[in-house]
What does this fold into?
Amino acid sequence: MIALRLPKLIDELRELLGRERVLANHAELLVYECDGFVIEKNCPDAVVFPASTAEVSAIVKLCNEYDVPFLPRGAGTSLAGGCLPVDGGVMIVLTKMNRILDIQLRDRYAIVEPGVVNVWLTQKLKGTGYHYAPDPSSQGACTIGGNVATNSGGPHTLKYGVTVNHVLGVECVLADGSIVQLGGPAEDAAGLDMPGIMVGSEGTLAIATRVWVRLTRDPQGYRTMLGVFDSVTDATNAISAIIAAGIIPAALEMMDQGILEAVEAAFHFGFPLDAQAILLIEVDGLEAGLDQQRDRISSLCMSNGAREVRQAETIQQRQLLWKSRKQAFGAVGRLSPSYCTQDGVVPRTKLPEILATISEIGRRHAIRIVNVFHAGDGNLHPILLFDERDEDQVRRVLAASEEILEACIACGGSVTGEHGIGVEKLNFMPKLFTADDLATMERLRQAFNPLGRLSPKKMLPTAGACGMEQMHPGRRAAV
Ligand SMILES: Cc1cc2nc3c(=O)[nH]c(=O)nc-3n(C[C@H](O)[C@H](O)[C@H](O)COP(=O)(O)OP(=O)(O)OC[C@H]3O[C@@H](n4cnc5c(N)ncnc54)[C@H](O)[C@@H]3O)c2cc1C
It folds into this structure.
């Protein structure tokens, strides 16, 4: 019984870290009962805040000694329940390891601890001519360790790629507490792409304690536009037309009418509230050629039914546009007490079809759904609005979410573009992968995490049933 071993483990953790860096009081643990996926909750038995790799290693060794599960957590912005301690155990929160250790502009890399908030690095680089390219909309809160674990993308993924394209190396604490370095400052390390294996492993293979990230040169110029459309289909056709014309915008984002209302109330940008959809389009690069790209995009939008195309005329306008987009999720708080964000991906040309399907699913389940998403990547974020205190609404949200993700698969897409599988989408893994594929992934997990104590019941379904089915059979049965 874990409960019998815990008091002794907690004593030892306190001896290691001091009382103030070990939480074991229920009222304090409640803060950690869920992440951004608020539908499933479970308290850890203890939360610890290491300040160094050596401390992470010592914590992991203690958890092994007492046979207690453990899992890493960054800022807890996961939208897939990645930080849910399914069977309790020790949560290792890395936010105190938050130093930018080194910046090497000539070699174009930086070394950061995992608890560095994404935007801090770009802020620190201001004026140097470089930035850190992965820019999830949560970048003001989420950590680089969390980004590595989930292979985060963001609005600028379309041109600059996802986190794996910007990670050169990772220092990790393995599931037995040993410390290894995978990759490092040099490009293209020999052998298997070990950092590539770590990125996107959702904390199931090892705990990242230090990251070597690639730095990207700032573009010489930007043109940022707002295409205003009276129909969602016209907006999505414009997206396909822009890509088909051979233009790769730095970002191509869409917001529908439902989300505009919340964003406008929050930021007063002057969005046209009667528009059915707006596209936020940015091109960047060498100044020479940007005006032509802007004009071409503008004319493609107009020929696909745009009512107007506006351009951000000043840096302040551009910043406000991006603030409105990146904080759109926060603004959703004005529309409902809780929301569940889905993360399906479809081929871009299927966007009109999937958006119509999502509205129909919302209508049928009487759940309001608004959309703000990375349209250029075909990466949808339908946001299902509900009140988590109402069990019936929770059941309808889960049912609608399941149908949306099924529809994405049916369109030739996937159930996650960037938020990961976590606990939320475990039951979709056998729909996306064959039994052989899953067995191979399981063998890889076992090579890193043979006893399964690190982040159990995440990402890969456990034989027979997924963790959440075991925890909440009633809830899953309702889906
Ligand atoms: C408003 C909002 C907007 C968002 N927008 C985007 C977006 O544009 N793009 C995007 O990709 N995501 C987005 N997300 C999802 C989320 O922010 C990302 O998944 C982010 O990378 C999580 O970082 P975090 O520090 O909060 O990690 P957490 O939520 O704390 O953890 C996420 C996962 O990573 C694991 N983990 C955390 N730290 C480590 C570590 N050091 N080593 C190993 N494993 C670790 C955890 O166990 C968990 O499985 C958004 C979320 C919100 C709430």
Observations:
- Residues 464-479 have pLDDT under 50 and may be disordered.
- Residues 35-36, 71-79, 82-83, 94, 114, 136-138, 142-143, 145-147, 149-150, 152-154, 202-203, 207-208, 329, 418-419, 455 surround flavin-adenine dinucleotide (CB under 6 Å).
- The first strand starts at residue 22 and ends at 23.
